[in-house]
Specification:
By secondary structure, this protein is an all-alpha fold. It is built from nine helices and no strands.
């Protein structure tokens, strides 16, 4: 699977579009992977930025989980264990990279006023891409 979500994000996708971390991952993946999400579906990511606006779970992580859900679930999560397995792998890789799942400590370390959390979102996209390459969803 040839995926270029991280490359899109590196090219100032987040800043150009005025998106939060969750929106950036979901929208970039929607464009790169042809997820077929319309503008109303994409709005579902809006409330997950900034760790759900309270510094909780990182928006880049929640955005990536939305992408995995779209790719690995046909109708509902309980139809197979695959989504749980793939989520666990993504979360473990994300936590290994950043040392936490929480927005506040990640933001404290990586946020830059000019580019916000672009590096975090780019790394999350790279983790997502590597996962998709190693365990591609059934088409």
């Amino acid at each position: 699977m040839d995926v270029h979500i991280a490359e899109k994000i590196k090219n100032d996708y987040m800043k150009k579009n005025g998106l939060n971390c969750a929106e950036t991952i979901l929208r970039a993946a929607n464009e790169e992977l042809g997820l077929g999400l319309d503008k109303n579906a994409l709005l579902l990511a809006a409330g997950f930025g900034g760790g759900m606006a309270v510094g909780n779970v990182c928006g880049a992580l929640t955005g990536a989980i939305m992408v995995l859900s779209r790719l690995y679930v046909k109708e509902r999560a309980h139809e197979s264990t695959r989504i749980k397995e793939i989520e666990k792998k993504f979360i473990a890789d994300f936590e290994k990279e950043f040392g936490t799942l929480l927005c506040t400590p990640i933001k404290d370390k990586y946020f830059k006023p000019d580019v916000h959390c672009k590096s975090v979102v780019t790394i999350a996209a790279e983790i997502l891409e590597n996962l998709l390459k190693s365990d591609p969803p059934a088409v």
